[in-house]
Design brief:
Blueprint (H helix, E strand, L loop, with lengths): L1 E3 L4 E13 L2 E12 L5 E8 L4 E10 L2 E9 H9 L4 H10 L2 E13 L4 E11 L8 E5 L12 E3 L4 E2 L2 E8 L4 E6 L7 E2 L6 E5 L10 E7 L5 E6 L15 E6 L15 E7 L16 H15 L5 E7 L3 E3 L5 E2 L2 H10 L12 H9 L9 E7 L7 H10 L4 E7 L6 H10 L3 E2 L5 H15 L3 E10 L4 E7 L4 E3 L4 E9 L8 E10 L2 E10 L9 H17 L6 H14 L6 E9 L13 H4 L4 E4 L1 E7 L2 E2 L7 H14 L4 H11 L12 H8 L10 H6 L4 H6 L5 H15 L8 H12 L6 H12 L11
Parallel strand pairs: 2-12, 7-35, 19-20, 19-23, 23-24, 24-25
Antiparallel strand pairs: 1-4, 2-3, 3-8, 4-7, 5-6, 5-8, 6-32, 7-34, 9-16, 10-11, 12-15, 13-16, 14-15, 17-18, 18-29, 20-21, 20-22, 26-28, 26-30, 27-29, 30-31, 32-33
Length: 768
């Protein structure tokens, strides 16, 4: 986006070419902005980036001057930045702008009246998977000319001379069709086998919407491969000197898996300020400690037997219930429930970063899948970027479900963590929602997922594969993962032109195997989008793992390649140079010696990758998240007249604030008495919570006490759960336990329970 203090700097003309190959996009754009005012304006170009985007080319032209961004090794770049005047503009932007998240920012200086600036921006990007299996490409509405500035070429065809937005599509599977939220030309195939096609926009999207382009491919999407030829100018054996393959994994995951042994590790991270009685009165009149403890109680009770779990509370320091995650049994569950009341309020600092580092440094237990539930209401001060870096580093090994309160300063951080790990972020508007929303996410976390993922390669003799980005530990339903590999060596038989890759994974106890054959000699692409993405992953891998003496040469070569290809990394920083057009060097060459940058013909200008600390998220794919959440909140407020919802609110409000126990409601008491295996024991406490006496329960018992108590509690929950979904997991556990009791006559028990409780619950409650 081009941001200015005034709206009169208008985008007049744009030329954009997007090439999409399966799930990677290569974007070339030229954008022409004009100052419509009679006074000069200072302008800055800001473009949002994320962990799947590499901005590799940027330059701006104003008259006979040109500003070009380039990469330098970090140490030398830092020296150059010290010689750059105006860096305070970026620091001000970082702290004062209303946006939040990572951006590419370049200060362009002063634009005189009625003068234009031409922006050239090129980037590559991994595309996310849409819910219906399409590849999703987005373009921000700010980078379209306003409709009043469009100049029509042909009224019949609806084409405009200052809007050129062409899209080239390629896939070995074949291109099926596209869906675009704006007027466009018909899809034109450019290959007889329909493996390539073209389409162009006629108009920007209406109502200031971002452009959303969905690309649908033919056949199975479980495996796709994009092979990119080597750079002929690079030495053999280097990353650029060898072909690179990008393999996108989209496992087919059944909705229901019988006898699933996929349990996982569940970690619950609770901000201790949520236990402060006086905090956030806007959320609810209910006792804060009770609501927070109830949430943890319901989560604990909903876990399946055999999984692993732990609970962490964090504030200025963090503390775990167990030194490491423990298996979920009756004993460990009871111990954890007993510790809930020991969590003390803490309004000091918020060491979420230290807690995450501690968790990530712990190996996965027996290969169990790790999922984090993070409840937070405090700001993480200046550590947001460091937190996101840690989350990004381990994004293939876990998933985050985040629950910020609706006035939480860390809302955007929570959203970013969830997006990065393919989890979910739910804004908590009232304390009564906390348990309900958390258990909804737990239900999603318990859905089947692909694990035990492995790839096997079959290449002609003489060729080998080196993994750059390995397959993840797990892939969740409706998501994908892209891996990168370098193909090196010399084929012994040049007639063999194909390779193959096989994907193996498990969903529960079921095994799946898919094989894809791909060409080793694709058409040439001198823009090297796949090499750029692979290089980004390689550089981050080298930064995280450290480099041994043997790897220093690899790092030196990779950094040199990243500078020549414009791929940012932890080893480089951006420097922007303003110079006369006649002095500009060829873009494909390496940057000049730093002494030239201090010459009279060029000046350094502020330009960096920044982390903004405002309140509006900048990611394309999440731009509507805030609107969705606010609309959902409004609908919830309008729906408060539902009598069952009112009953639940009244029940919560009736709890005496002086009673700090989570047993202040019959609901909490019934839940608290459920065992880890899903059953209930017949006790006076259960009878009292159900509104019955021991004599009532004993007198109508049609079966042994535990089964009878479980049926009663199940029917009571089902009848009086006030239409909230959090009880479904508790009911499912009870049903599984009852089905394992072969001697129990469920129909007879249900009839007796309905009679005793004065309700009518149908046999479908047992899920048989």
């Amino acid at each position: 986006w081009l941001f200015s203090s005034y709206p009169e700097v208008e985008l007049e003309t744009m030329t954009v070419k997007v090439t999409i190959q399966d799930f990677v996009a290569d974007v070339e754009s030229e954008l022409f902005f004009r100052n419509m005012q009679q006074v000069s304006r200072e302008i800055m170009f800001i473009f949002p980036v994320d962990s799947d985007t590499v901005v590799h080319t940027f330059y701006a032209t104003m008259g006979d001057t040109r500003i070009e961004a380039m990469l330098w090794e970090k140490e030398e770049a830092q020296q150059l930045c010290k010689a750059t005047s105006g860096m305070e503009n970026l620091r001000y932007l970082q702290d004062q702008w209303d946006l939040w998240g990572p951006v590419f920012a370049c200060f362009l200086g002063t634009l005189p009246p009625n003068r234009e600036v031409a922006i050239s921006l090129c980037y590559v990007q991994e595309l996310p998977l849409h819910s219906d299996g399409a590849a999703l490409f987005c373009w921000p509405h700010e980078l379209f000319p306003r409709r009043k500035y469009l100049s029509c070429i042909s009224s019949e065809e609806g084409m405009f001379e200052n809007l050129h937005f062409s899209i080239c599509l390629k896939s070995a599977h074949g291109v099926s069709h596209v869906a675009i939220n704006s007027s466009h030309t018909p899809l034109q195939y450019t290959a007889p086998d329909q493996t390539s096609a073209e389409v162009s926009l006629k108009l920007p999207p209406w109502m200031q919407d971002d452009l959303n382009l969905l690309v649908y491919y033919r056949g199975s999407h479980t495996l796709s491969a994009v092979v990119e030829r080597r750079d002929p100018k690079a030495p053999l054996g280097s990353l650029l000197g060898d072909p690179v393959v990008m393999v996108t994994l989209t496992p087919s995951i059944p909705e229901v898996v019988a006898n699933s042994s996929q349990l996982g590790e569940f970690l619950f991270l609770m901000d201790r300020s949520l236990f402060q009685d006086a905090q956030l009165p806007h959320l609810s009149s209910a006792h804060p400690s009770i609501c927070s403890q109830n949430t943890l109680l319901f989560l604990l009770k909903s876990l399946p037997l055999g999984c692993y779990f732990n609970i962490y509370s964090f504030g200025a320091t963090f503390k775990a219930f167990y030194p490491q995650s423990v298996e979920y049994t009756q004993e460990s569950m009871e111990n954890a429930v007993g510790c809930l009341s020991s969590i003390c309020p803490d309004l000091g600092g918020c060491d979420l970063l230290g807690l995450l580092k501690s968790i990530y440094s712990t190996p996965l237990l027996h290969g169990n899948l790790r999922q984090l539930f993070i409840f937070i209401q405090r700001k993480i001060s200046s550590e947001e970027e460091a937190v996101m870096a840690e989350v990004y580093r381990y994004r293939d090994h876990h998933r985050c479900f985040c629950f910020p309160t609706n006035r939480c300063d860390s809302f955007n951080l929570s959203q970013g963590m969830a997006l990065e790990t393919k989890g979910e972020c739910v804004c908590i508007h009232s304390r009564m929602e906390m348990a309900s929303e958390a258990v909804k996410c737990l239900r999603r976390a318990l859905q089947p997922m692909a694990s035990g993922i492995s790839l096997h390669w079959d290449l002609p003799p003489g060729l080998e594969v080196s993994m750059i980005r390995k397959a993840p530990e797990m892939i969740f339903q409706g998501h994908q993962s892209s891996i990168y590999a370098q193909i090196h060596g010399l084929a012994q038989d040049v007639e063999l032109s194909e390779g193959a890759v096989s994907l193996q994974y498990h969903v529960g106890s079921q095994s799946f195997n898919y094989t894809l054959r791909f060409s080793l000699f694709p058409s040439a692409d001198d823009r090297l989008p796949v090499h750029r993405m692979a290089l980004m992953h390689l550089l981050w891998k080298l930064a995280w793992e450290g480099t041994s003496r043997a790897e220093k040469d690899i790092r030196h070569s990779a950094v040199k390649s990243s500078i020549s290809l414009g791929v940012p990394s932890p080893f480089t920083s951006i420097v922007a140079v303003l110079m006369k057009q006649r002095d500009a060097w060829h873009h494909d060459s390496l940057p000049p010696d730093s002494s030239m940058l201090l010459s009279s013909s060029c000046n350094l200008v502020p330009c960096q990758l920044l982390w903004l600390r405002g309140f509006r998220p900048v990611w394309f794919k999440s731009a509507k998240f805030w609107i969705v959440q606010k609309c959902q909140f409004c609908l919830e407020m309008l729906d408060r007249k539902d009598p069952d919802t009112e009953a639940l609110s009244q029940l919560s409000a009736s709890c005496k604030e002086a009673d700090s126990s989570w047993k202040c409601t019959a609901l909490g008491a019934v839940v608290a008495l459920q065992k880890a295996n899903g059953s209930w024991a017949f006790t006076t406490a259960l009878a009292s919570a159900l509104g019955l006496s021991n004599a009532d329960v004993d007198g109508q018992s049609p079966t042994e006490p535990s089964a009878w108590a479980t049926v009663l509690a199940l029917v009571w929950l089902h009848q009086y759960k006030w239409k909230v979904p959090w009880s479904e997991l508790l009911e499912a556990k009870a049903c599984r336990w009852l089905r394992d009791q072969a001697e129990v006559q469920l129909d007879e028990c249900l009839e007796a329970a309905n009679s005793l409780l004065g309700c009518f619950v149908e046999p479908t409650v047992f899920r048989i």
